[in-house]
Specification:
single chain, mainly alpha, 2 domains
Amino acid sequence: MNLADVAKTAASVGLTALGTALGGPAGGAVASTIARSLGLSNANPATINAALGDPANVVKLKQIEASVQIAQINADAQGVKAVNTTMQAEATSEHWPTYSWRPFIGACFGVLALFAGLAVVFTYGAAMLGKPSAAAFANLPGMLQGIAAVMFTIAPVLGVSAWHRGRMQVEQAKANNGTGT
């Protein structure tokens, strides 16, 4: 018996996160943690697999699994709160570079999207008008790949910024009770 077998058993009794972890690269460490949590004498896969046959052990491990998931959710919420605090501080800054960098990045994203679209339109437009250029078609994937790489770097910043800006506007509208002031 090996850790892959234990992972299958764990998943079959509803411990999907532990089953996945046992089957992954940190499987040995996860097995040791399970053995310690259940008070087992060793982390032998056969011993752990046998322990998973006891419903009381499964309940205990499900509680641990739930605690880990709650901790992950709380950590994510703290991260979002920190980003929100930073963005609020930037928005109220007195220095123009601090409060204007996000709109500038948004404008750059728009320009990149325009260039990507124009590159495709002109390359395929020339081909449709009867003047295809082998060099243009050969260079198009590289151009689009470069533009996409920059866009994919900027897109997460814009997404977070837009989401927080939208939330701020909704909160402001609720505070104004729709009076427009």
